[in-house]
Amino acid sequence: LGETLSLAHFVAPAHVVTASVVEPLSEGVEADSNGDLTIQVYPGGELGAGPMEQYVRAVQGVADITWGLSGYTSSQFPKSMIVEMPGAIPEGMTGYDMLWNAFDEHLADEFPGTRPLALWVSEPSIFIMRDREIRSPEDLQGLRIRVSGSVPGALVEAFGATPVQMPAGEMYNALQTGLIEGIVTGASAVNDFKLDEVANSYTVGAPLGHIMFYLVMNEERYEGLSEEHRAILDEHTGRGLSQKGEEGWNASAERTLRALRDNPDNTVIDLTEEEIATFTEIADPLREKLIEEMGAEDVLTAMTGN
Amino acid sequence: MLAFLRTNVDRLIGLSSLLGSAALVLVTCVVLVDVIGRYFGAPLRGAQDIGQMSMVIIVFGGMAYCDRIKGHIAVDIFENAFPPRLNHAIDIAVAMLGAAIFSAIAWKVIQSAQLSLMLNLSTNIINLPKAWFQWALAGFSILTALTMALRAVEIILAGPEVHGEQGREVL
Amino acid sequence: MSPDLVGLIGILALFALLALRVPVAFAMFVVGLAGVSVLSSPANAFNLLASETFTLASSAELIVVPLFILMGNVATASGMSRRLYDAAYAIIGSIRGGLASATIVGCGGFAALCGSSVASALTMGRVSLAEMERFNYDPRLSTGAVAAGGTLGILIPPSTGFVVYAILTQQSIGRLFLAGVLPGIMLLLLFILLITALSIMRPSYGPTGPHRSLREKSVALMGAIPIIGIVLLTIGGIYVGFFSPVEAAAVGAGLVIVFSVVARQLTVKSFYHAVRDTIATTATVMLILISAHLLNPFLALSRIPHEVATLLTGLDIGPTGILALILLCYLVLGLFLEGFAMLVLTMPIFFPVVVALGFDPIWFGVLVVLTLEMGLISPPVGVNVFIVKSVAPNVPLRDIFAGVMPFWLVMLVAVILLVLFPQIALFLPNTMIGG
Ligand code: NA
Ligand code: NA
């Protein structure tokens, strides 16, 4: 009577997603069900290559559960991805809380065919640069910056740089050869993709937004589980698992930044209030414009709960 | 009847490979304009989106033509060891198998296109709808399936004697 | 039935289908679909078919495949490739076995232009076999040289073999390309050494060619300068960060087209044929890649890669012993399988083992591509041998296989040298783009 759910993702098993989301979920349900409900993990695109089709795979049931980045298919998640926008998360709030606050009323229709098990955001994005120090938007003029998704793309463009989209696995080589001058993403990516070997200057504090992640389960598969298994799964998913994800990313980012600061070959620039303001002047109007174009002011209100 | 079908399928194959060729030339130009534009600080917006979606037309536009010139790699070391009747049967089975595979691809990709519409999927920079290109892929696959089905019929009618004749005529 | 038994049956069925002349891609489609249907569900199998097909067909990285093929095809159609060969021939054609050696150099030059071994052997075969026959070269030497020299196409960058390896294993294409340069040159020199030795032992094998004056040599070299320039710009552009691989391929194709048109060596018709051949070859390659990606989930579900990896890593024969076993696996598989499909089939099994043993993935990539090359010319299934046979219909197949055997042994020597001295592969990537 044992039930095994398949969970597929597209990154190496050592990626931060394993320790912060996959293991808590699989160990939790296995313990509570006395080994009756287990999760079989297929890492590294074993059940299908590439990050683009992760959501579709869950809808079609190629895997019961999949993990993915919303940014790869931005057009599917316009409202959810408000949480990615620079300055959207107010001081003292968390990204996962904002997503779940607005989920039932505004975001559920962006997840047809699946049941989201966790929704969270990464640590704040930083500039990861090779041979360039970024202290103001002027320093970015004409540079080629790798981004993931349309919102950071528009932001980097507004700062005067050229956004470049490329698979995560190519970042290393592109930075090495100078095809791009820098990357906008969370610090945890430095560790996941060994970027510290090729980057040497990191700028922390600019309003660059966050990256949103989802862990979704095929809806029919969920509905088809026994009531008991559903209860166990509910217990270990939702806000609780989302919190683990977000905290796991933040912790990984902190570790990474600490290691970067300890390495004398690197420069870690902590922007001052005045320096941050030069970015905010551009980022805030852009966010407002993007939200206004969508007519989604009420979504942001629901997210922040006021 | 068969000759009529052959003529028209060959015309469609010609059209399909023409579209694939045009997409290849387009991609070459788009990437070049992007590179040159970048040098002058004005890269082509959405070059990557165009490249990715044109790739679908390049790959599947050439599929029927590839089959027509027997471009699919097969291991034929035992061909001469097999009796002619077996070789004839294999040729028919392979053509029918190919027709089945490409029909399945078309059928499932059309279903996926419905899903793409439901999820509102499009490329990240210039929002090219994914479903359009899935339909194109399905259309080229149907033509490829048709090519192979027609070949199966032709091999059956020709009989085992004419095995080994290469199909490399230029369309 | 246990998953690994299903997996084993699937692999055997694949071999059976291949032996029955079912095209490689179709065989992998059938086994992948059936295997996933059994181990998961038919619905999942067919959903995978749709998503893998579209994902690969719309891959941003794989645009390099048609663009590099286009560059090679246009260069062939306009005669640029042949002029490259002429230059090599003029310069070393007069030494013993020189024409065969020139063919090898021409193959090396073509390899620097084209990522495919098949295209290299086909093009060089068309150009050189007739010339060597004219100078009474033994057909065993001439066909052997073309078949073996053609395999340089996937060792000397650009290389479809390295691109596929990089995508399968998440390695950097640029580093792999650089890593292939010195082993490629080494193998090229070993081939020339072999030809010279064979021609000295048996003068009838490779008689000497005519002497060319310095003037004639420089004229021939001048003719090849545009194509040499384009190659240097294209490949060099990737390494200095001027272009991404896709951009470099487009620039290379664009420049070859422009030069051919300006030199009035390309008609609208020959251009269209080059483009259409390109999309046909692209379709062949991509269909194999798509079908292999359908086979991958089947292998993953069967847990066979996991078990083979555990078995191999558990063997008490040391890392070098395991590496030797893996390379032996490739040599054995290479007897039957087409190299490209073999790479996609086996990499999920072996790559994690190799990484776990602490071997350099770039160096391993070069070793694998080298063993793939050996598979291209080894009987019974040697794709390059069949290609050469198709342009030299009068030479019996057994003579061509006899002709390639010395080259196969020399490649084995190259593999051993590379295992003993990994620096041959790693020197360039490590010095030029750091560790
Ligand atoms: Na090459
Ligand atoms: Na072989």
TrEMBL record, chain B:
<keyword id="KW-0472">Membrane</keyword>
<dbReference type="Pfam" id="PF04290">
    <property type="entry name" value="DctQ"/>
</dbReference>
<keyword id="KW-1003">Cell membrane</keyword>
<feature type="domain" description="Tripartite ATP-independent periplasmic transporters DctQ component">
    <location>
        <begin position="28"/>
        <end position="155"/>
    </location>
</feature>
<keyword id="KW-0812">Transmembrane</keyword>
<keyword id="KW-0997">Cell inner membrane</keyword>
<protein>
    <recommendedName>
        <fullName>TRAP transporter small permease protein</fullName>
    </recommendedName>
</protein>
<comment type="function">
    <text>Part of the tripartite ATP-independent periplasmic (TRAP) transport system.</text>
</comment>
<feature type="transmembrane region" description="Helical">
    <location>
        <begin position="131"/>
        <end position="150"/>
    </location>
</feature>
<keyword id="KW-1133">Transmembrane helix</keyword>
<dbReference type="InterPro" id="IPR007387">
    <property type="entry name" value="TRAP_DctQ"/>
</dbReference>
<comment type="subunit">
    <text>The complex comprises the extracytoplasmic solute receptor protein and the two transmembrane proteins.</text>
</comment>
<comment type="similarity">
    <text>Belongs to the TRAP transporter small permease family.</text>
</comment>
<feature type="transmembrane region" description="Helical">
    <location>
        <begin position="88"/>
        <end position="111"/>
    </location>
</feature>
<dbReference type="InterPro" id="IPR055348">
    <property type="entry name" value="DctQ"/>
</dbReference>
<keyword id="KW-0813">Transport</keyword>
<feature type="transmembrane region" description="Helical">
    <location>
        <begin position="12"/>
        <end position="38"/>
    </location>
</feature>
<feature type="transmembrane region" description="Helical">
    <location>
        <begin position="50"/>
        <end position="67"/>
    </location>
</feature>
UniProtKB/TrEMBL annotation, chain C:
<feature type="transmembrane region" description="Helical">
    <location>
        <begin position="365"/>
        <end position="388"/>
    </location>
</feature>
<feature type="transmembrane region" description="Helical">
    <location>
        <begin position="141"/>
        <end position="167"/>
    </location>
</feature>
<protein>
    <recommendedName>
        <fullName>TRAP transporter large permease protein</fullName>
    </recommendedName>
</protein>
<keyword id="KW-1003">Cell membrane</keyword>
<dbReference type="InterPro" id="IPR004681">
    <property type="entry name" value="TRAP_DctM"/>
</dbReference>
<feature type="domain" description="TRAP C4-dicarboxylate transport system permease DctM subunit">
    <location>
        <begin position="12"/>
        <end position="424"/>
    </location>
</feature>
<comment type="function">
    <text>Part of the tripartite ATP-independent periplasmic (TRAP) transport system.</text>
</comment>
<keyword id="KW-0472">Membrane</keyword>
<feature type="transmembrane region" description="Helical">
    <location>
        <begin position="54"/>
        <end position="75"/>
    </location>
</feature>
<dbReference type="Pfam" id="PF06808">
    <property type="entry name" value="DctM"/>
</dbReference>
<keyword id="KW-0813">Transport</keyword>
<keyword id="KW-0997">Cell inner membrane</keyword>
<feature type="transmembrane region" description="Helical">
    <location>
        <begin position="248"/>
        <end position="267"/>
    </location>
</feature>
<keyword id="KW-0812">Transmembrane</keyword>
<comment type="subunit">
    <text>The complex comprises the extracytoplasmic solute receptor protein and the two transmembrane proteins.</text>
</comment>
<feature type="transmembrane region" description="Helical">
    <location>
        <begin position="173"/>
        <end position="198"/>
    </location>
</feature>
<feature type="transmembrane region" description="Helical">
    <location>
        <begin position="279"/>
        <end position="299"/>
    </location>
</feature>
<feature type="transmembrane region" description="Helical">
    <location>
        <begin position="311"/>
        <end position="333"/>
    </location>
</feature>
<keyword id="KW-1133">Transmembrane helix</keyword>
<feature type="transmembrane region" description="Helical">
    <location>
        <begin position="400"/>
        <end position="421"/>
    </location>
</feature>
<feature type="transmembrane region" description="Helical">
    <location>
        <begin position="219"/>
        <end position="242"/>
    </location>
</feature>
<feature type="transmembrane region" description="Helical">
    <location>
        <begin position="340"/>
        <end position="359"/>
    </location>
</feature>
